[in-house]
């Protein structure tokens, strides 16, 4: 069993437009509404590959019900904590000139009682999981130390924890030493306090984080690819060229692929190819975290690894 945690799930609305013009009326060409949030996306990918998944996090209102129904429909176990507020709606606007604009709501108010209930659910929800995946932002009232606390609780029970968050939630949790962390370049800059311009800068910053006792650091660099640092190796893989339709959820696909690679005890090289192939395949579909599996296999074969 793999447990995913999405403290701030969302209904993701994807709008396609010819061109988005700020300060003017913009008419939408097409709309797609799906259940999302980083951990929900991770669960989606894991279910496609047949893994047992339990989904935790806060859900509320009509949007919450929509997400719960979806998670159940893909065969993942729902173990959500229900709150009084309404789960958010996020908007992702894809325009034909290639720009992707995301509008992300902060999320519902979370009361102290609801937070305590979540901690209780968390202890139960991870009991039979060997891997715990903590993904995304959290609603504003949730303390910035929430992931720090969850990582320690899970580690105390012998679980491996994968962390993919941003801003203060990432910064405040890194000292709790998750098993793996996946910052993108912007997040790596926040974590390391350094500007990252070249691959050497990214390697230096990732090593600094690894040096704090985190066994696996994966730095995602969009179309440029993925840097992977562990106790023994520094490896970089350029992403294969694909016709990108929607890159939302690429990071979540990396996280899901890493979790599967751990379960399968892959070599480092296989693991990196698997992560790069699956995330590049995700970019080719309009719906986030839907992996064309044959395409992913084909892309994995094309991945070239450079060792540093
Ligand atoms: N245009 C692309 N072509 C090929 N592969 C891509 C492309 N964009 C992303 N990827 C792959 O997906 C990985 C993760 O992407 P990215 O760095 O955008 O993650 P992210 O910022 O965490 O995204 P999100 O928060 O939307 O999940 C990259 O490291 C790369 O391997
Ligand atoms: O606000 P967060 O939690 O950082 O990001 C939320 C989000 O943008 O991330 C996913 C893609 O990775 C989307 O499904 C979702 O809307």
Automatic annotation (TrEMBL):
A GO MF term: 1-phosphofructokinase activity
Pathway: Carbohydrate metabolism; D-tagatose 6-phosphate degradation; D-glyceraldehyde 3-phosphate and glycerone phosphate from D-tagatose 6-phosphate: step 1/2
Keywords, in A-Z order: ATP-binding, Kinase, Lactose metabolism, Nucleotide-binding, Transferase
SUPFAM superfamilies named in the record: Ribokinase-like
PANTHER family the record matches: 1-PHOSPHOFRUCTOKINASE-RELATED, ATP-DEPENDENT 6-PHOSPHOFRUCTOKINASE ISOZYME 2
Protein name per Swiss-Prot or TrEMBL: Tagatose-6-phosphate kinase
GO CC term (a single one): cytosol
GO BP annotations listed: carbohydrate catabolic process; lactose metabolic process; small molecule metabolic process
CDD domains attached to this UniProt entry: FruK_PfkB_like (cd01164)
Family named by the database record: Belongs to the carbohydrate kinase PfkB family. LacC subfamily.
Function text: Catalyzes the ATP-dependent phosphorylation of fructose-l-phosphate to fructose-l,6-bisphosphate.
PROSITE patterns in alphabetical order: PFKB_KINASES_1 (PS00583)
EC number: 2.7.1.144
All copies of domain Carbohydrate kinase PfkB, residue ranges: 18-285
């Amino acid at each position: 069993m793999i447990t995913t945690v999405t403290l701030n799930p969302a209904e993701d609305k994807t709008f396609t437009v010819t061109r988005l013009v700020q300060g003017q009326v913009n008419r939408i060409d097409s709309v797609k509404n799906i259940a999302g949030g980083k951990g929900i996306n991770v669960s989606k990918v894991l279910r496609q590959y047949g893994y047992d998944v339990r989904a935790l996090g806060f859900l509320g209102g009509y949007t919450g019900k929509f997400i719960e129904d979806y998670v159940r429909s893909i065969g993942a176990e729902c173990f959500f904590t229900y709150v009084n507020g309404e789960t958010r709606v996020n908007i992702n606007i894809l325009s034909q000139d290639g720009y992707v604009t995301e509008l992300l709501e902060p999320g519902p108010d979370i009361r102290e009682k609801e937070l305590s209930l979540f901690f209780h659910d968390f202890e139960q929800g991870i009991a039979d999981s060997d891997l715990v995946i903590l993904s995304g932002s959290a609603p504003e009232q949730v303390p910035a130390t929430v992931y720090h606390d969850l990582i320690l609780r899970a580690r105390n029970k012998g679980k491996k924890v994968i962390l993919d968050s941003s801003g203060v939630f990432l910064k405040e949790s890194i000292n709790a030493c998750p098993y793996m962390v996946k910052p993108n370049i912007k997040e790596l800059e926040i974590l390391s306090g350094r500007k990252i311009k070249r691959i050497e800068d990214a390697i230096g910053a990732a090593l600094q984080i690894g040096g704090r006792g985190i066994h696996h650091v994966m730095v995602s660099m969009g179309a440029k690819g993925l840097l992977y640092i562990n106790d023994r190796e520094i490896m970089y893989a350029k992403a294969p060229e694909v016709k990108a339709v929607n890159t939302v959820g690429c990071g979540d696909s990396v996280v899901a692929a890493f979790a599967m690679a751990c379960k399968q005890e892959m070599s480092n090289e296989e693991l990196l190819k698997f992560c790069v192939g699956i995330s590049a395949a995700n970019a080719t579909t309009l719906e986030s975290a839907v992996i064309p599996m044959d395409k992913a296999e084909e892309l994995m074969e094309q991945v070239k690894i450079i060792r540093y």
